[in-house]
Every structure is written in structure tokens, then in C-alpha cells.
Write a structure and sequence with these properties.
Number of strands: 4
Radius of gyration: 25 Å
Largest sheet: 4 strands, antiparallel
Order of helices and strands: HHEEEE
Structural class: alpha+beta
Distance between the termini: 99 Å
Low-confidence stretches: 110-124, 126-130
Shape: elongated
């Protein structure tokens, strides 16, 4: 029975290591939540060098999200801090799971919108809607008392 004296501590160590590995594997990061999707959208917007958007002055909230396999469809509301929710806007994004995080799909990767008859366009690359610049006849009116905005070149003159 000399073998039992040696094998018992070895088996305990093996069992302990196997249990630890199992626990670590079961604690893998679950990213199917609104916070992880929000972070993916924020990372995407911060990476856009040509986008003049001050995220620190915005309240950004994922209002809805649908998870499908390795993709997520999210609606994100943008409201200026201190403003009424009616003064904000909503954008739709399709995100793809990459490792332990979500990444916004680029325009060429998104599907067509059946209501527009064409490819999805969005100034944020990845959303499913467009927002016309103020003063271009797109219905975006300034609030009462707001100073006039300079023309962006896209409106009628």
C-alpha cells in the first residue's frame, strides 16, 4: 500500500487544479447586456476621427437590444445632458461579438432597410437611420430662441 501514500496527494492536487480550471471556464465574460452594447457604441464613436461629437455632453442610453447568436441589434438614444428626452435622437446599430466585446458593424456589413429601398446610410456608420443637418429642409428645427446655425452647404439658398 505504499502507492496510496504517494497517489493520494497527487490526486488531490490534480482534482484541485481541475476544479480551478472548471471554475475559471464557467466565469467567462457574459456580454449579452446593455452596458456591454453601450460600451461598443461608445468605442465606435470615439474611434471616428471625422465625427465632431462630444460624448461627455451627451447622455447615451441603450433603450432596447435584441441578441442573436453573435450579433445584436440595438437602439441607442442620445440626449444632451440636462435636456428633455424629447430633444434627443435615437439611432439603431447592428453590432457583432468580437472576443469579449461588441463592435459596431460598418455600413458595407449591414443589411438593407426594406422600407428605404436601398442600402442603410448613417453618419455613424452602422446605424439604420439618417439625420439631416439643421437648415437642410429635413424637418430638424431649432428650439425657440436658439441662435441661427451657419449653413452646411447642403440646404437651399
Amino acid at each position: 500500500m505504499a502507492g496510496n501514500g504517494y497517489n493520494c496527494p497527487v490526486m488531490r492536487r490534480f482534482a484541485t487544479c481541475a476544479l480551478a480550471a472548471l471554475l475559471l471556464a464557467s466565469c467567462s465574460k457574459n456580454i449579452e447586456n446593455k452596458d456591454a452594447v453601450r460600451q461598443g457604441v461608445v468605442d465606435h464613436l470615439k474611434a471616428r476621427k471625422n465625427l465632431d461629437l462630444d460624448l461627455s455632453s451627451m447622455q447615451l442610453e441603450v433603450t432596447s437590444v435584441i441578441f442573436r447568436d453573435k450579433e445584436a441589434d440595438a437602439t441607442v438614444s442620445f440626449v444632451p445632458k440636462g435636456a428633455a428626452p424629447s430633444q434627443g435622437m435615437s439611432m439603431k446599430y447592428t453590432l457583432v461579438r468580437e472576443g469579449g466585446s461588441w463592435k459596431v458593424k460598418q455600413k458595407s456589413e449591414t443589411t438593407n432597410n426594406p422600407h428605404s429601398g436601398g442600402a442603410v446610410t448613417n453618419p455613424h456608420e452602422g446605424g439604420m437611420g439618417t439625420v439631416p443637418p439643421p437648415g437642410t429642409g429635413g424637418g430638424a428645427e431649432l428650439p425657440p430662441g436658439h441662435p441661427p446655425m451657419p449653413s452646411t452647404g447642403g440646404g437651399k439658398k
